[in-house]
Amino acid sequence: MQDKDLKNQKTKNKSKSLPSGLIVRSGKFVWTTLWHIMMSSLAPRNKSGEYIRPASQFRNFISTEAGNLYQPQAGRYRLYVGLGCPWAHRTLVVRSLKGLEDVISVSIVSPSPNEGIWVLNQEEEGCRTLPELYNLAVPGYKGRATVPVLWDMQNKAIVNNESSEIIVMLNSQFKEFATNPTLDLYPEELREQIDSWNEKIYHTVNNGVYRCGFAQTQAAYDKACKELFATLDEIDAVLKTSRYLCADKVTLADVRLFTTLFRFDIVYYGLFKCNRHRIVDYQNLGAYLRDLYQLPGVANTCDLESVKRDYYGNLFPLNPGGIIPYGPDITNLMEPHHRESIGKKMADS
Fold first, then answer.
1. What highest taxon heads this organism's lineage (predicted)?
2. 145 in a known ligand binding site
3. Centroid of chain to Cα 19
4. 286 in the same domain as 225
């Protein structure tokens, strides 16, 4: 009887054992091969395995310059945005800060986990997907269909799909229609400083988190991660004596940094392996994030659930199970930031 029980126990234990080495090696080979194939489309890389972001293709400008096809007009332009996308989020923040909600309309697109494209939440211009909208603007277009898109409803054309340029236009070209026309997020006297911050932050932080998450070699990841946190440490030190990146004025540099910081603890810390520190762990950066989040209208542009769904639910190569985490709790973003007098104290001392 004891021998039978022992045999049953051995059989039971055997059934719970790990797969054989051959199965593990085979599975690893197949998955790694498929992962590289999927990543090659999702995240183009160089020979070192570093993620290389493709350049935006539509770079026209709205201006009052004589002869320019795209003139500032209320009700003529529409933004196509994904609520989870940090690049599109920039445009929503500037639109809100400037008070352009009644001037420039917004249409929401959502990523399709099965098709790998952005899909309009409701059909517009006879289009169901963003690639169809791009093809409406440029028949036969075969390039990437990304957000944000600044769309000219009058000419059925894409004005621009580069977020850094769209926010400059929103800041400067619609003042006569804006409810907050005196706010200048890109003042002439600060442009050199703003541009310097933008250059550094784009490479190491805005795109830096993607260089970490989309790295396809350990060396590429290590390099990106070190550069990311070196810049975050530098910014944290600057913010000890400066309320914003450029003294006491909110600028486009802050907007461009904010949309990455908002997503950092939610997705980049875990999913993209940017896990040396959370933003909330930084004394100055954490309070700075709360400061920006609490600016009038900004919190309304932030959609936690869309961010989690779009990253965890749709980046299949990084999260094959598609499981979306329950947290984090972001109610701390409404806690007092106590940054109103930073900078002023230094000037008075």
1. Bacteria
2. yes
3. 39
4. yes
